Every structure is written in structure tokens, then in C-alpha cells.
Amino acid sequence: MTLRALLALPEWAQSVRVLAGTAGLGREVRDVRPSPGPAPDHPVTQGELVVVAGPMRPGDWRIDALLRRVADGGGAGVLLPVDDLLEGTRRLGDRLGVPVLVTAEAPLERLVAARLALAEPELDRAELLLATHEALTDRLRPPEEIVAVLSGLLRAPVALLDDQGGVLAGESGAAGLLRPGEPVPQRIELSDGVLLAHPALLPSASRPALWLAVRLHGTAAARAGVVPPALAVAAGAVQRWLLAHRLELERDARSRSALLGDLLRLDAEPDADLRRRAADAGWRLGGWHVGIRIGTPASVDNVARGADVARALRGEGIDAVVVEHGDGWTAWTTFAQEPVAGQVRDLAARLRAAHRELGRSVGAHMGVGRPHPRPEGLAATIAEAGDAARLAATRPETGHFLHVDQLGMAQLLLEWTRTDTFEPAARALLAPLRELPGDLVRTLAAYLDAESSLAETAAVLGVHRNTVAARVQRIERVLGVDLRRRDERLALHLACRTVILADEHG
């Protein structure tokens, strides 16, 4: 055991300070022996930590003599019952590389704790493991409470991380340090300590969804060998909460999905029982509804990811009901009065932004319906949103997002382009762009779909807005057009759609 490890002991951490010789804290401590004072007749052995038990003054000349004897004998350091030292003594300790520790409390108690740690290296581990087990296994606790309890036991920052290393609960000191692709549990050496991480793995999952991580700084890093069993116990407490929470989520999802199914099958006014069930769920049936459909690949766990959808919508100020439904989610938001065109456009813009945010963690396509009133209108707008979402799944140029109000014009444009003469003309018009690098045809299509928004086009293409601006300028220069002119925009929009559609269908 090193001096640094001794300083991390609970009995030492709050009462012992290092005043000199910090360069020697990595020395191995082989023995801890008391001395009634800094007497010259005390022989110092290799690896010995000398604990001076008798009272003494900080200016006692015998302290300097003791430091020299410790250095000559290869000792690990000295522990003195003083509050401070003379500056000359500090400099001597630094020059000799002999750690000088001081304590204002009874040094013999520190000696007993050190001897126990040396004689029983597993004692600290066992005590921490027992304390963690007693604190976390008495009942189900939410992750935030588990993190707080463990942080108090370890006296170190603890965090609950997602599979990408993002902090879900606790302190952010472990953010971005996790290595998801490496074996588990993990021990990651840092410049100022060590990061320990243990996965919380559900029985049906192939990879960890959550990690419990602790970052040990400075002298606390010496306990890195003691902490893993306690971390595993705490990760088990997280797993138990996840399983219980998952059952609750699935029961709630089945209930909500059944209620939604009953509403969508309505062909008349809902009866009293259905209205009561909707009210119990907090769903408004009156007013004007705008349906939202979010489709996902079959591999996405929609029950577990439902909170991500609600969070993305709330982030854009959208108060919506979200229901797990098929391969994805069905949602809607409700206006008290019929929304005007500006409100609908604003909602669509915010939904597009929420879709982009959701796309950072879940591959999804989104469709949005038009406003419809009353309970029967809810089924109509959700059906429109579903149709739009199915088309959005095949439209990368729109960012896999479609609003029914925009879809009507898009479908009309496509009908105009389905003639024998338009495709050759469209190809000839865009030929100069197809000969140049930079995927200019797709950039032009996305730019026109986004109503000339550089930011929106950049988000769809996954490039910087300055890149889009440079490409648009190049397109105007190569084709000799002005994209501010409506007629030229319409012609180019038709041409892009025709060429892209034809290319996708061979």
C-alpha cells in the first residue's frame, strides 16, 4: 500500500494533510510504527512510516533530524501531531523527497487505521460493499437517488450515463469519457485519476443501455481497486429499477394504444365511457387537432424511446400527446380554436426542428396532418399524418419530413412532370450541374424544398450552411439563373424532382 492509498482511507482523508515531500507519496508503506518523539535512537527501516505519538512543537530541531534518518533508512515518510511546520522543515522534506504528514487529531488512531489497512487489504473493500448493499437493496430507488447515495458513500462524483456517454443523472465529470465499444466493466486511466464504469444491462438487451460511472481524483484514485464491487451492487439497483419501470411503461403503453385504437375506430360521437377514459389519460377531444406520425425502423425500442420523443417535442414548445403505435409513435397537438395559416406554418417548422433533434438518437421519418376539429377530426388528421409519414420515409431530399399542406403541391408538381417530353428537357437543363462535383442537383432540390432556407438545407444534407451557400452561388453561376425569380425556381424545382425520381426508379 502506498502513502497515497493511506491518505484515501476514511480515517485519514479528513484529518491528515501533506505539508512537504509530495513527490514521495507513491512510496510503498511496509510498516507503520509509533515513536514517542523524534528521538535519534529510533531506527528507521525500509518502507516504514514513522508516527510520532508524543506532543511536540512545530519548531523542534529534532524533526529535521528525523527527516534525514527517514531518508537515509529508506523510510516511507513521517506523521507528526502538529498543525504546521517551519518553512525550512518543509523545504528539507521536499529536497529529501520524504513525505511529511501532519494531523491535529490523535495520531495513534491514524496508526491503528493504517495498520488495519495493511494487515487486511480487503477490509475497506468489504466495508464499502456492505455499506452499499445495505443502502441500496432495501427498496427500489430511482436512478437519481441511487447516484446520490453512491456518491455519498464513495465521496466522489458519480454519474448515470447513456450508451453514448451522455449524463442522465449525477455530476457531469464523466461525460464523454466512456468507451462503449470496449469490454465491460471499464477502467479508464485519466491524467488526474481514473474513471470506473459498470453497465446496467437488461436481460433482453444485447448491449448496455446505461452505465454507472465514478471518477476518482487525486488521492481518491488509490481506492480504484476497492470501488468496483460497490459499483456493481449499485448497477444492480439500477437494473432492478429499469425492469420495474419497463413493466410500468409497457402496461401504460398498452392502455394508451388501446384507447387510441378505440378513438380511431369512431364513426360517431364517443360515448360517456370513452370520454371518461380519454379524460383519465389527460387527452382533450374537443378543439382542433393536428396529427403527427413518427415512423421508425423495427429495431427501435419504441417503449423505451418514447421519453425521447416527448422531450424533443417539449424542447420546441409543443404540447402533444404521444402514443406508442405500431413501428413508431402517433401523436397530436390540440388548438382551442381553429388555427390560422401562420400558426400551422409555425407548428410545422417547430415539428421539423423536433424531428431533427430526435434524429440525433433515433432514425425516424415524420408526417404531419392538417387541422381537423372534434373527436372525429382526430382520426382524420392522424390518417393524413400516417400517409405523409409513409411518403416521408422515401424522401431524403425533404429530410424524411412531410407536411400534408406541402405534400399536395409536391404531388401536383410530380403530375406535371410525368410527360414524355419533360424528362429529357429536365436532364438537359440540369446537365451542367451533373458534370460537376458536390452533388449539386440534390443540393438544389433540397434548397428549393426548404424554401431557400440555408439552415434547413444544411440540416437535411448534413453539411455546414456555408457549404450550402457556396453551392447555391455556384449553381446560379453555372446555370445562369437567379433563384429569387419565381418562374426560374418553379422550372428548376420541377426539373430536379423529375430527374431525382427517374434516377431512383432506374
UniProtKB/TrEMBL annotation:
Pfam families hit by this protein: GGDEF_2 (PF17853), HTH_30 (PF13556)
Domain PucR C-terminal helix-turn-helix: 440-497
Annotated ranges, domain CdaR GGDEF-like: 270-391
UniProt similarity note: Belongs to the CdaR family.
Protein name (database record): PucR family transcriptional regulator
Organismal lineage: Bacteria, Bacillati, Actinomycetota, Actinomycetes, Pseudonocardiales
